Amino acid sequence: MPEYLLLKRINICKLILLALMWIQSDEDSQLSLTPDYSSPLQVENLTWLGETYVKEDVEHFCDVSNTVRIGVWGEILELKLVDFIADLPKSLHDASWFALLAINMMLVDKELNRRYVHPQDEYFARTVALDCLAQLGDSYLAKGHPYLDFPLSLEEAKSLLPVDRKQELEIELEKFVIDTYEHDFEDEKPDISEIKKDYLKEVFKDFLLILTGGVI
């Protein structure tokens, strides 16, 4: 198994653990709970919301109970441990997947305001966040493979290409985007700057699969 996939699975487990601690901490603070109780998830980091385009997904995640949340995280974990690149089955799974990042961001913000999810460790959420960034960055981004869970512009994707072949691959990537677009829409050569990021994300994934010989 490639090192990056192993580290990514480990970090998913860390984020789920952090999310479960958040739910437990919130439930412990309530005087009474109903079977459909849902811990309120408020992401106040507007920069994060603006850059990830998942605001509606996070809000949708708030519509379900903590019991359902935990069950969906369990299903996501089972799926990702077996087949990491498989599509998630439902929109609720997608929302729950993105919510793990939102919860981590929220708990970091809370720590900075002296509200701790782990009373014995005031740096717990920040440590998890930094560990995830350091491990995924060192093993994957530093080697030039773009992390494509979020939409990227063409220039952002180019910046993540392997350094030793960067100039050559930048040309190949741009040509691949144009050829794919023309094939999909039978249009004349497009203005890449006007192509939507959601479409580019799928094209970048296809390019990466070709570049890595079908193994991400």
Give structural attributes:
single chain; 216 residues; mainly alpha; 9 helices
Describe this structure in words.
The chain is an all-alpha fold and 216 residues long. It contains nine helices and no strands. The protein has helices spanning 3-28, 46-52, 55-61, 66-82, 91-112, 124-139, 154-158, 166-185, 197-211. Helix 3 packs across helix 5. It starts with a helix and ends in a 5-residue tail after the last helix. Residues 138-148 have low confidence and may be disordered.
Summarize the structure.
Helices cover 62% and strands 0% of the residues.
Helix content: 55-70%
Structural class: mainly alpha
What is the strand tally? 0
**Number of distinct helices:** 9
Strand content: under 5%
Kindly report how far apart the N and C termini lie.
10 Å
> What value does the Rg take, in angstroms?
19 Å
Low-confidence stretches: 138-148
Shape: elongated
List the helices and strands and how they pair.
Layout: H1 3-28, H2 46-52, H3 55-61, H4 66-82, H5 91-112, H6 124-139, H7 154-158, H8 166-185, H9 197-211
